[in-house]
Amino acid sequence: MPVQFYLFLPSYGYILNHAFHYLLLFLQPIILYIFFYKKRLYDKFLCMFLAFFIYLSILSSETFFSVIISSVTGNNFVDQYWGSYYVVINSLSLFITLKYIDFFEFQFNYFKKIYFIREINSITKSYIIIHILLNISHILSEVAHLNSFASMIATICFILFLSSLFYLKSVRERYEKIKEIKQKEKEQRQLQLYTDEIVQLYNEIRGFRHDYASMLISLQTGINTGDMKEVENIFHNVLKKANLSLRSDDYTFFELNNVKDTALRSVMIQTIFKAREHEIEILFEVKDEIERLPMNLLDLVRVASVLLNNAVEGAAESTSKSINISLVNLENEIIFVIQNSRQSRHMNIEEIYEMGFSTKGKNRGLGLSNVKEIISKYEDIILETDITSNSFTQVLIFKRKEIL
To answer: For the chain, how long is the longest CA-to-CA vector?
Structure first.
């Protein structure tokens, strides 16, 4: 073979090696996408977003910091200490990526909601463009007189990616604000319904008071005349029925007035209306005034919401459809009991507190594991669980201590 062929081989090998390197860089997010999609973590659009997010968060940071460091130290320094240089750059990029997620408070489950679909699709398209531009900047950086231009493209890509994170954060905050407003409106409607019902029950009691006066006069007349049949008739057909009416489940709602913690009372009121949607009989027993419970307000609302929602869901599946809720104020502790009827099926106490456990399917039960995690922060709060063939009982015991 001619000598020129052997002279050409090193150059050809260099080009082939670089071509393979850039092809691998270009395909990395696609490989990530295939991995996420095969694992069925999210739908295809969110898998695509997640793949490019992870890839660009590392690569754009790595490229940007490479440009900064090489500009300060010079290319000779990079060439001389390239091993240590790339270890530092990659470690720094990974650290920055984790900080992105922490600072912007990314919860990727949020992005599964319909509200985010349009934004996620738009950002994914922009990520693909940034990805292409970054790879072009890598290729151009190999050409000496285009190195500065490549650095400028890399810097622009980093700024664009960072801007997308701020945009995503603003979208999430807007969503949370809308959700909060809707929740407050719902609570206001429920509170109004509850108030209207209390007024109605109060008017009924006023009516009974007047009726009782007439009943007692009739009873007195029967006693005075010695007409025992009339006395018996009044007792069975009037007084007994009136007593049953006054003992109706609706009147147990008055006992919520003893719950002085407005946040907890609001959660309990919401439970009333949720129970009614499923035609569940719900009884409250709060004989003593319950002041602020010794637990952080947000934690209390989260724990109570999970336990009460679970009670409604469990009772809705059962035949008897009943919930009993009581708050007992003792000298050294406050006891919060939530008992609901349940469908007869095997249930292991240890399993129900595991992440992802749910009677409704895989990865749908995050509530009780969160409750367990919250309660573990408090030394003076105990959660006890009792399961029978037809009932499920949660007992929260708050030991007396200084209010948080």
So the answer is: 139
